[in-house]
Specification:
about 500 residues, alpha+beta, MDM2, 4 domains, five-stranded mixed sheet, four-stranded antiparallel sheet, 16 helices
Length: about 500
């Protein structure tokens, strides 16, 4: 957010929308996050330097970072839960600061200023460094106005930040359990609304429970008696305080409902003070929601018995999946190794016995002659058609690979008794969409009744939406879940 950006005295150079920037902790030059600007400097000035400055793409210790086998830590200032000033840089600064007493007023406590939880961006003012424009000269009137305005908006607390990480008390297992329960009840009373349900367990923890913890206290579920978030939520479900279920696609426990008549809920007195919200947690929740809406569909191919000899001849693995360009490269590599390109016509490929069997064995009717050559433009597609089709669907951090071709989502409207219309959705599971969660969402969006039923004679579920909302449903799937129109089949049986 623009109000949380620390601006150096020389100001920031002009920038445009979509530029890559880095976020660093003061006193430590290594980035803790990277992202892209969400507006240009001109637009930022018109908006009064309010609103979102960066769209965070990757941050220290996120899922992408932890998925690496050998995670690289930039310097000694990066800890598991805290990023502080680089000790090597800090020592050099302290040496120079001892020579200039007047300039040490705002720098003498650099370590305390920067010893801040990586996930608590409300308590720090990050410094942004542009890889593209940090060496450019601020020479325009617009850049001078931006510098002046952003400096005026710089929060006064930048110069007085204090971290209490060193003074944080060590909590016992029982105290961690008690604090987790207290934060859960505080969030259920304050920020968790029934209209937001169902909520994934990870979102509940990062976006609602953690912001309710006392200031300066790190809450780590691994230090509790439960060790895992799912076990903790299931234990709360056993007591009747909440109701949870496991998402069969994401393999994650989700909060489904809250028993607000439960004794633990009614007897708890929530704190009236304003709960400090965690900017980074909010960003994480937003990023997770946006990430969950991103859909990627990849068509893949597995070598079959027909083409296995070609893969073996070039030393390629016959057990893995290949994209269409990768499969084409395999067969063209075989052609190149065997020097099968026709000399008199470079656009033709001579078929030796192995390549001919791979492309046409079993596909040519008996009595017909096998071809002796093939055009280059037809070679790749013919080769791919002889492989086993697969597809991979990725939504956020979830990914699944299935055999066969991807069938589209079918949206069908038909009439029921009394000339009433009903719209049916089927095939959602192939796109990693939960029919029950989507039904609840559509009920609120279109203000109509929805039900989930098993597909007659087929495996899977279908969502029934009251009314003829076929176009609105298709638009919702495209806009909110990134499903391409090519994967949506519309059938309106109400039209004559």
């Amino acid at each position: 957010m623009f109000p949380g950006i620390h601006i150096p005295e020389e100001g920031l150079a002009p920038f445009s929308d979509g530029e890559p920037w880095a976020v660093v902790v003061p006193g430590n030059p290594a980035p803790i996050a990277v992202g892209t600007t969400m507006m240009s400097s001109t637009e930022a000035l018109k908006a009064g330097l309010r609103g979102k400055a960066l769209r965070i793409s990757h941050y220290y210790r996120d899922t992408l970072w932890e998925s690496s086998e050998n995670c690289y830590v930039p310097n000694a200032g990066f800890f598991e839960d805290v990023v502080v000033a680089d000790p090597a840089l800090l020592s050099s600064l302290q040496t120079s600061d001892s020579r200039e007493d007047d300039s040490s007023v705002g720098q003498g406590n650099v370590e305390n200023e920067n010893m801040t939880d990586v996930n608590d961006f409300d308590e720090i003012s990050p410094v942004l460094e542009s890889d593209l424009t940090k060496d450019s000269v601020v020479a325009t009137e617009a850049s001078e106005q931006i510098t002046t305005a952003m400096t005026d908006l710089q929060m006064e607390k930048d110069s007085g930040l204090e971290s209490n990480v060193d003074s944080q008390p060590l909590l016992s297992v029982e105290e961690v359990d008690s604090l987790m329960d207290k934060c859960l009840l505080q969030s259920l009373h304050g920020t968790v609304k029934d209209k937001d349900l169902p909520i994934p367990g990870s979102t509940l923890w990062s976006g609602y429970v953690l912001p309710c913890r006392p200031s300066g206290v790190t809450l780590d579920i691994k230090k509790s008696s439960y060790k895992k978030l799912s076990k903790w939520l299931q234990s709360k479900s056993t007591t009747g305080l909440i109701s949870v279920k496991e998402d069969k696609h994401k393999k994650e426990v989700m909060l489904v409902s809250i028993n607000r008549n439960h004794l633990d809920y009614t007897s708890f007195k929530p704190e009236k003070k304003k709960v400090e919200k965690n900017d980074q947690s909010t960003k994480s929740v937003t990023s997770e929601v946006q990430l969950h809406k991103l859909l990627e569909v990849a068509e893949l191919y597995k070598p079959s018995v027909h083409v296995n000899p070609i893969f073996s001849a070039v030393g390629a693995d016959t057990g893995k999946l290949y994209s269409a360009p990768e499969a084409s490269q395999i067969v063209f590599a075989y052609v190149e190794n065997g020097k099968l390109v026709k000399e008199v016509d470079k656009s033709k490929v001579i078929l030796d016995s192995t390549l001919c069997d791979a492309l046409f064995k079993g596909a040519i009717k008996k009595g017909l002659m096998y071809p002796t050559e093939i055009h280059k433009k037809d070679l790749g597609q013919t080769f791919i058609n002889r492989m086993q089709a697969h597809y991979r669907v990725t939504r956020g951090t979830d990914s699944v690979v299935r055999k066969g071709s991807l069938k589209p989502i079918q949206i069908m409207t038909e009439r029921r008794q009394g000339n009433k219309k009903v719209t049916k959705l089927s095939g959602l599971e192939s796109y990693l969409l939960d029919p029950e969660a989507l039904a609840s969402e559509l009920q609120k969006k279109f203000a109509c009744s929805t039900t989930v039923a098993e597909l007659p004679g087929k495996k899977g579920l279908e969502v029934l939406v009251q009314g003829g909302v076929i176009d609105d449903l298709a638009r919702h799937l495209v806009d909110q879940y990134g499903i391409s129109k090519r994967y949506i089949e519309i059938l309106d049986k109400t039209k004559k």
